[in-house]
Write a structure and sequence with these properties.
single chain, Alpha/beta knot, five-stranded parallel sheet, alpha/beta
């Protein structure tokens, strides 16, 4: 299985990129994690935010692999404990070759992305910076894999 983090925002600080890469490298080949980004188009006070959000959504949807399970990161999504996420990951490994996790930008995800999603996942009721969200997602997926593998990274 391959986990695809599809994100809005292609100019992240070095520490964001390093944080994501730290966990992506730790994942085993049979549960590889990759990142793809589309540029954020919200610039200036005169920006047409609605149109920019639609463009971001179109670009993200085009990145979704055919046949992939699509999970939208959204504050109104389901919250999962680590063990519940491990169960989700196990289900994904059994039933899908590709899982696409969509992370929006400053304005969230476009309606097209939310409509395309099979499920919605909320990391927290807190609003997280979208760059930080990709690190949290990567770390939690690694932790879920460690639970399934009996790896000592996860401790209760």
């Amino acid at each position: 299985m391959r986990l695809h983090l599809l994100c809005v925002g292609d100019r992240q600080p070095t520490w964001i990129n390093q944080g994501f890469e730290t966990y992506a490298r730790r994942m085993p080949r049979e549960c590889a994690m990759a990142l793809a980004e589309v540029p954020s188009r919200h610039h200036g006070k005169a920006a047409d935010v609605k149109r920019a959000l639609e463009k971001e959504g179109e670009r993200l949807v085009r990145l979704i692999p055919r046949g992939a399970l699509v999970i939208a990161l959204s504050i109104d999504g389901e919250t999962w404990s680590t063990k519940q996420l491990a169960g989700q990951l196990e289900d994904w490994r059994r039933n899908y070759q590709n899982v696409a996790l969509l992370i929006g930008g400053a304005e969230g995800l476009a309606p097209a992305c939310l409509e395309r999603a099979h499920r919605r996942w909320s990391l927290s009721a807190l609003t997280l910076p979208h760059g930080l969200a990709r690190i949290v997602v990567a770390e939690q997926l690694y932790r879920a894999w460690s639970v399934l593998s009996g790896h000592p990274y996860h401790r209760e």
